[in-house]
Amino acid sequence: MRHGKPYRRWGGAQKRVNLLRNLVTGLVRFERIETSIARAHECQKYAERIIYVAKRGDKDPDAMRVADFWLTDKAQVHKLFKVLGQRYTHSNGPFTKIHKVGEPGFLGKMTAFLEFKGNPYPPLQPFERKNPKWLINVLLQGAQQDFHDSGLAQKTNHNITNDRSMDRLSDAVSEVKLVSSVEGTVVNEQTGLSDGHDGKNYEGTPV
């Protein structure tokens, strides 16, 4: 807890400023970054302000001075004024959005995506935490319990097992070939006679 502190320290004032400058530069360059929720919320405030500055244009000396300070990669100054500034010309904000992702990990920390609106990436799916006490989950659990209590689940499983057994039996019968143990000739399944037999019972001829 910050206990009245106006901002997060993160190891000192200079370290905090360097961290925020790197986050803002990465956001301007990639338009979507992944970081912790605390850093995303802290960086979002400065990303919003730098877009307001970029909307003034590169002819404004104060805007150029602010962009030169916050962007550690000087190649992104052109993108800030010519791409992002032009994109939000007719928008009054907010220009960024935070998406929480994943379950809380060690010490309850979660990651988040901070992005500029209108970026070329596919949209992110909103994070939904599963709560067993939600109404829809309670109704689904009750329906599953009623289904098992009624005995329909056992009947369904029994029918599925019988169907699978019949399928295996029919496959086995269709593949069986009766072979004569004496001559080694294949016996016809319908007539019971070996191939080439004329149906007459000759003495000494196996049927």
UniProtKB/TrEMBL annotation:
Domain of life of the native organism: Eukaryota
Family according to the record: Belongs to the bacterial ribosomal protein bL17 family.
The organism's taxonomic lineage, starting at the top: Eukaryota, Metazoa, Echinodermata, Eleutherozoa, Echinozoa
Keyword Membrane: no
BP GO terms, sorted: translation
Molecular functions per Gene Ontology: structural constituent of ribosome
Name of the protein in question: Large ribosomal subunit protein bL17m
A cellular-component GO term for this protein: mitochondrial large ribosomal subunit
Pfam families: Ribosomal_L17
Keyword ATP-binding listed: no
Region (Disordered): 187-207
Organism, scientific name: Stichopus japonicus (Sea cucumber)
